[in-house]
Design brief:
Blueprint (H helix, E strand, L loop, with lengths): L5 H15 L2 H16 L17 E3 L5 E3 H5 L4 E5 L6 H19 L3 E6 L3 H11 L5 E3 L4 H5 L3 E3 L2 H9 L4 H5 L5 E3 L2 E5 L5 E6 L9 H10 L2
Helix pairs in contact: 1-4, 4-9
């Protein structure tokens, strides 16, 4: 288990990227982040205190996972991520993987949700040894209920294709929508206890912040 903070790990990815990728290509991503930030999406996500939407999504094996069933067990951590192609997402989920024993010991449960297909989730779970369910959210319909969805700009679509990230293939539908990476904790009464999302995909909350909310809700 690493003792380095999650954000330190993500910052290292950013640093390496800046060394290896041409400045003009980096500028495309920077513009995309700035444009998304100016939409105010961070301020319009589903907030703490409201009732969270119920969901029933399929896991990597095609099994239907219902939030109502999970909440009978304990508080629910929901991690929205972009996909297995995102190194920031993989690193974040590996950090949560290393915390999963604590999550279960404290009576909480966790799922991770993305728009990618079950096949992509199966690959990712195996590659990274993820013990919690990876759920497919086709067309980002659940993410939209949490206020997290945006459409990649035409410039970003071209950029993604240039680095072999073909979202319509990965996600199994043509919309080019993505969720803002977000972390939620939902209490057994369905109320949101913790909510954080960032327009800059390189920034994620430290898991300990969400764990504190989940463990206090037992």
């Amino acid at each position: 288990m690493t003792t380095t903070s999650l954000q330190d790990q993500l910052d290292e990815i950013t640093s390496n990227t800046r060394r290896l990728v041409q400045a003009e290509r980096l500028a495309i991503s920077e513009r995309s982040i700035e444009e998304l930030f100016t939409t105010g999406i961070e301020e319009t996500i589903l907030p703490v205190g409201v009732e969270a939407p119920e969901f029933a999504l399929k896991d990597a094996n095609g099994k239907l996972v219902r939030s109502a069933d999970l909440l009978t067990v304990g508080p629910l951590i929901v991690k929205f991520f972009r996909g297995r192609w995102c190194s920031y997402c993989s690193t974040e989920l590996e950090t949560w993987r290393d915390l999963y024993g604590r999550i279960r010991e404290h009576g909480a449960v966790m799922v991770a949700v993305s728009p990618q297909t079950a096949r992509q989730n199966d690959f990712m779970a195996g590659q990274h040894g993820l013990p919690f369910p990876l759920l497919s959210d086709p067309g980002n319909k659940l993410a939209a209920q949490f206020g997290l969805v945006y459409t990649a700009s035409p410039e970003m679509q071209v950029y993604y294709r240039s680095i072999l990230v073909n979202l319509p293939f990965i996600n199994g539908e043509p919309s080019w929508t993505l969720p803002v990476p977000a972390t939620y904790v939902i209490g057994r009464d369905k109320r949101v206890l913790f909510a954080e999302a960032h327009a800059d995909f390189r920034v994620r909350p430290e898991p300990e912040e969400a764990l504190a909310a989940a463990f206090a809700a037992r």
